[in-house]
């Protein structure tokens, strides 16, 4: 079938590499356009992979945890008498260095915790979503249950079930309140 068909509803079919170019492009630009399409396809496949989603969620969790720790460090309650005893004889620059080191340690610790939780949840959710081939609230609830159980694994079986239920409830609440806003499909 050619593009000049007399049939009004006929869709033109072109051979690979002979598709019409966007307006303003010449035949010399075809190779660049094909290469761009190829890389866009690779980037789309990478962003859909569970490994990339897990790494991105872990990195975002680390950043958020470090930021929360930085903000809470400014509100930290400290005993001025205790600080005078521990920093006695220090110069101002030495005191500032110690404060920044302490803030950095807190940011690192909090960032690692948030990153671990984010990566764990996102990885489990992606695996469940890939297995079920559906994107619905049951994925986040199930992954919340598993992630909560894994995080509470060192505290015994009751804590595993309790942590799983709490994390599943939290995941469901977040999903219902902030993420799922579309109307259900009607049959």
Task: Outline the structure in words.
It is a single chain. The model has no long low-confidence stretch (mean pLDDT 85). 69% of the residues lie in helices and 0% in strands. The two termini are 36 Å apart. The longest helix has 41 residues, at 92-132. Helix 2 (50-73) packs antiparallel against helix 4 (92-132) and helix 5 runs antiparallel to helix 6 (157-179). The protein is mainly alpha-helical and 187 residues long. The chain contains six helices and no strands. The protein has helices at residues 30-48, 50-73, 80-86, 92-132, 137-151, 157-179.
Highlighted features:
mainly alpha, 187 residues
What is the structure about, briefly put?
With 187 residues, the protein is mostly helical. The chain is built from six helices and no strands.
- Ranges where pLDDT stays below 50 over 5 or more residues in a row are none
Q: Count the E strands.
A: 0
Main sheet specs = none
Could you spell the SSE succession in H and E letters?
A: HHHHHH
Coarse shape: flat
Annotate the secondary structure layout.
Blueprint: H1 30-48, H2 50-73, H3 80-86, H4 92-132, H5 137-151, H6 157-179
Helix pairs in contact: 2-4, 4-5, 5-6
């Amino acid at each position: 079938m050619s593009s000049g068909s007399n049939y009004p509803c006929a869709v033109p079919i072109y051979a690979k590499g002979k598709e019409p170019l966007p307006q303003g492009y010449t035949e010399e630009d075809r190779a660049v356009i094909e290469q761009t399409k190829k890389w866009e396809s690779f980037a789309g496949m990478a962003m859909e992979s569970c490994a990339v989603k897990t790494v991105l969620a872990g990195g975002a969790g680390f950043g958020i945890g470090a930021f929360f720790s930085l903000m809470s460090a400014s509100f930290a309650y400290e005993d001025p008498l205790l600080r005078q005893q521990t920093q006695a004889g220090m110069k101002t620059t030495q005191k500032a260095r110690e404060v920044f080191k302490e803030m950095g340690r807190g940011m690192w610790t909090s960032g690692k915790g948030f990153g671990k939780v984010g990566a764990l949840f996102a990885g489990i959710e992606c695996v469940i979503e890939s297995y079920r081939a559906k994107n619905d609230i049951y994925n986040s609830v199930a992954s919340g249950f598993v992630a909560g159980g894994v995080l509470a694994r060192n505290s015994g079986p009751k804590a595993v079930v309790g942590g799983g239920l709490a994390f599943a409830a939290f995941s469901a609440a977040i999903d219902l309140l902030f993420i799922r806003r579309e109307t259900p499909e009607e049959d």
